[in-house]
What we know:
The chain is an alpha/beta fold.
Amino acid sequence: MTQNDSDKNKIWCIIPVYNNGRTLHDVVLGCKNQIENIVVVDDGSTDIDVRLKVADDRVVVLRHATNQGKGSALMTGLRYVRKHGGKYAITIDADGQHFPQDISKFISEVKGKDDLIVIGARDFSVENVPGKSKFGRNFANFWFKVETGLLIRDCQSGYRAYPVDHVLQLGIKGKHYNFETEVITKAAWAGLRLKTINVGVKYDKGNARVSHFHAWKDNLRISKTHTFLVLRRLFPLPHKKLIARKEDIIYQELFKHPVKILKHLLKENTTPEGLAASAAVGILLAVLPLIAMHTIAIIYVTTRLHLNKIMAVSIQNLCIPPFVPALCIEIGHYIRYGEWLTEVSIDVIFYQALDRIWEWFLGSLIVAPVLAILTGGIVFIIAKFLQRKTRKDIVSA
């Protein structure tokens, strides 16, 4: 047993279960060798009687009458742990993907702490890792950085240690796999610390591993959650802080060290994904009829979303008059009147622009997202190519 007596009532293990009859017994057995208190939350399983499968007085089994989703199962477990005096909860999936012996790593990280979330970064160098898992991890990592400015190596890992009291105060709405997306973003906003540790992972061949992640439903839920989190991030109201921390605002040093600040801005979020998103945001806002406000809007949005400001502000120059505004006005005129403008002149663009602001706005609703997607895609391809070329040059050197 790796857990000390002083920790046994403070650190618990939560295992959410839904139709994992083949692997549940081994997962529970492995966890029992690592930790004293275990809660299994049966989220409406129909393949087995979880109580009979576990059959151990040391393991608490809670049951949902119907399947409510992984997030709901975790919340049920967290509330039970808090009720019984637990301070931390280590969550591990019941599908056999994770190794219970890694629980000891989480225990050593959270001892003496109450404001740290520990996330187990899976080793994707092993065999049989699905391509969708790799893509999903990169997708989640990117959006988490946009929402918080932080870099986490595996935002989708379900192997985590949560400070129970703090997590239950975050107001999590996600009831399915989107719970794990929402909780770490809101935790970061609330001032909690996040840390990743390396953990092992096992993927069975073919359909041997039982996964209940629905490609369409769950990806849609996760995308909706990211959309909400990004919009909330753009809203200029402070987030509720559970832990007060002094934020590092480098821009207050702008006038003292302008060269240093410029170097920082040039390096800010320079991944291919980050640069593509920055370019897309710059174009999207530059096309809209935000007369004399484009640069201000771009700086505000890129600051809130932790994107590269230099890229976004620079690329807006592609949308300067007359071509893009003329295109927007032309399309907007057609939407309003069902016919094209027969003459688009300098007079229309520069002197009638305010009179045609409604047409400009309507047209921009079509032009802006199209140009943003195209520009973002081109920037991503170029950045990816340059990234690979740089790596090759480094290796050959």
